[in-house]
From TrEMBL:
Pathway: Amino-acid biosynthesis; L-arginine biosynthesis; N(2)-acetyl-L-ornithine from L-glutamate: step 2/4. This is Acetylglutamate kinase. It catalyses: N-acetyl-L-glutamate + ATP = N-acetyl-L-glutamyl 5-phosphate + ADP. Its EC number is 2.7.2.8. GO terms for cellular component: cytoplasm. GO terms for biological process: L-arginine biosynthetic process via ornithine. Transmembrane segments: none annotated. Belongs to the acetylglutamate kinase family. ArgB subfamily.
Length: 266
C-alpha cells in the first residue's frame, strides 16, 4: 500500500525556541513517505515588528497586515523562518524545498474584504482553488515542500494567511490524490480541559464537544481557529487530524503511541 501523505503544521512558539525546533525537525525528517511542512512564525514577526517600531495588532488571532507589516512578514516568514527550517531539514537528510504560496502558484488567495475590520493584506483561500498538481509533482520526486504562511492574489501582491488555515487547505486539496493525514504541532500536549495542566488532554474530540467547550470558555484564543480549520479538513475528506505536542509527532504518526487530541467527525 502507498504511504499516506503527512501534512504537518508547526506553530510559532516552537519555531521561536531553537532547541525545540531542532528536536522537532529531527523527528519530522524521519517520517517516511510523502510529507509537507507548513510553518507559522507569528511570535517572531511580532518581535521583529517591535524592533522596527511597528506595533503588532491581532484580532481573533489574525494579524492586521498594513503595507509595512506585509514587508516584515514577507522577510520573516518567506526568508528567515522558511530558509532556516529548510537548512535544518537538509542537515537531517530531508530534501526540503522552501516555498511561499506565490511560488509555482501553490496557494492563490483573495484579499479579505473590509467589513467591520480592515485586515489589510490578509489573504483568504477559496475552497477548491488550490491547484494540487505542482505539490503532487514535488512529492512524487521525493522533495519535501516547506510552506511559509504567505499567499498571493494573482495581481502581484503577496498576502499574509494564517498557517493553520494553509495546512488545512493544502491537506484538503491533496486528499483527492493521496490518503492524507493532518497534524497540528504546538507547545501543549493537545486540546486541554485545563490550559495549565498538560495531563488534562482530551484524547478524542467531536464537533459537539468542541462547541460546548468553546461556549463554556475551556477552549479559547488560538485554539478556536485551529479547531475550526481542523474540523473543516476532516469534513472535507482528510483521513485523520491530530493536535499534539511537537515532541509527539513521530510516535503519533508512526502509530507507536497514543498522544495528543484526535478529531472525530460526528
Ligand atoms: N483548551 C485549550 N487547550 C490547549 N490550548 C489552548 C486551549 N485554549 C486555548 N489554548 C491556547 O491556544 C494556543 C494555541 O493556539 P496558537 O497560539 O494559535 O497556536 P500555534 O502555536 O500553533 O500558532 C495555546 O498556546 C494555548 O495558549
Ligand atoms: C493573517 C495572519 O494572522 N497570519 C499569521 C501567519 C503566521 C502564523 O499563522 O503563525 P503561527 O502559526 O505561529 O501563529 C500571522 O501573521 O500571525
Amino acid at each position: 500500500m502507498k504511504d499516506a501523505l503527512q501534512v504537518v503544521k508547526i506553530g510559532g512558539n516552537i519555531i521561536d525556541d531553537e532547541a525545540k525546533l531542532n528536536s522537532f525537525l529531527k523527528d519530522f525528517a524521519q517520517l517516511t513517505g510523502p510529507k509537507i511542512l507548513v510553518h507559522g512564525g507569528g511570535k517572531i514577526a511580532t518581535e521583529v515588528s517591535k524592533g522596527l517600531g511597528i506595533e503588532a495588532r491581532l484580532v481573533d488571532g489574525r494579524r492586521i497586515t498594513d503595507a509595512e507589516t506585509l514587508r516584515v512578514v514577507t522577510m520573516v516568514y518567506g526568508g528567515l523562518v522558511n530558509k532556516n527550517i529548510v537548512a535544518k531539514l537538509q542537515a537531517n537528510n530531508c530534501n526540503a524545498l522552501g516555498l511561499t504560496g506565490a511560488d509555482a502558484d501553490i496557494i492563490p488567495a483573495t484579499k479579505r474584504p473590509v467589513k467591520d475590520i480592515d485586515y489589510g493584506f490578509v489573504g483568504d483561500i477559496t475552497e477548491g482553488t488550490i491547484p494540487a498538481k505542482t505539490l503532487k509533482l514535488l512529492l512524487e520526486n521525493n522533495l519535501t515542500p516547506v510552506i511559509a504562511p504567505l499567499t498571493h492574489d494573482g495581481q502581484g501582491n503577496l498576502l499574509n494567511t494564517n498557517a493553520d488555515t494553509i495546512a488545512s487547505a493544502l491537506a484538503v486539496a491533496l486528499s483527492g490524490h493521496f490518503e492524507t493525514r493532518l497534524t497540528y504541532c504546538f507547545e501543549k500536549k493537545g486540546v486541554l480541559t485545563d490550559i495549565n495542566d498538560d495531563n488534562s488532554v482530551i484524547h478524542q474530540i467531536t464537533n459537539n464537544q468542541y462547541t460546548s467547550l468553546k461556549n463554556d470558555g475551556t477552549i479559547a484564543q488560538g485554539m478556536i481557529p485551529k479547531l475550526d480549520n481542523a474540523f473543516r479538513a476532516i469534513a472535507a475528506g482528510v483521513t485523520s487530524v491530530f493536535i499534539c505536542h511537537a515532541d509527539d509527532v513521530l510516535p503519533i504518526l508512526e502509530k507507536k503511541a497514543t498522544a495528543g487530541t484526535e478529531l472525530v467527525n460526528s
